[in-house]
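Hi all, long-time lurker, first post. I run a small reading group and we've been trying to get comfortable going from sequence to structure in the token notation. Rather than ask abstract questions, I figured I'd post a concrete chain and ask someone more experienced to write out its structure so we can walk through it together at our next meeting. Sequence below, copied exactly:
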Amino acid sequence: MNRRWLGPVVSVVVTVLSVATMSSLGVGVLVGLVGGDTALPCDRLPGTAQPFEGDRHIAYEGAPHEPYRTVPPTSGPHSPRVVVPGIYRDAVPEELQVHALEHGHVLVQYAPDVPPGDVEKLERLGRRHPRDVVVAPYPPLGHGIGLTGWQRLGRLDTLDERAVEEFIERIAGRYDHSWQHGAADCVSG
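-- Answer (accepted) --
Happy to help. Here is the structure in token form:
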């Protein structure tokens, strides 16, 4: 190919790719606006719906506030700080748990009686969803595994990887400071 044609050919290719990229982004936005109500109805969700306990910020982790009604908590007063999704070897303070839930994340927490091999499997499941899941120990459970999303609670006596995966896939992102994608409060709505 003649070198004097190289510049215009590259310009045309870059322009075509840019237009194609922008067009696909535009189509994605339109689909989101027109068909964005993709949330599953309440009766198809794993776990049980929990009443709204508020969403106010407290001054710091451990600051006095009304007690949470569920173990682990599913909504309520929380820290203004947020814990990022990931694998934690120490328990996450409840006030940080709730703030993670408010951002649409799912917490997968385990009691001291969960075997180390099952903890490794839970951590592996968490790594499959690096933007959505916090995996951590939670001694107040006393027994088994707790799965939480905003106003949603699941409990497992023993590890059921399919149930954990289903909870993550169906609950993560339903709530992010408000109900998303057509999701609704399953207690009052």
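A couple of things your group might point at:
The chain has two domains: 1-36, 42-171.
The two ends are 66 Å apart (CA to CA).
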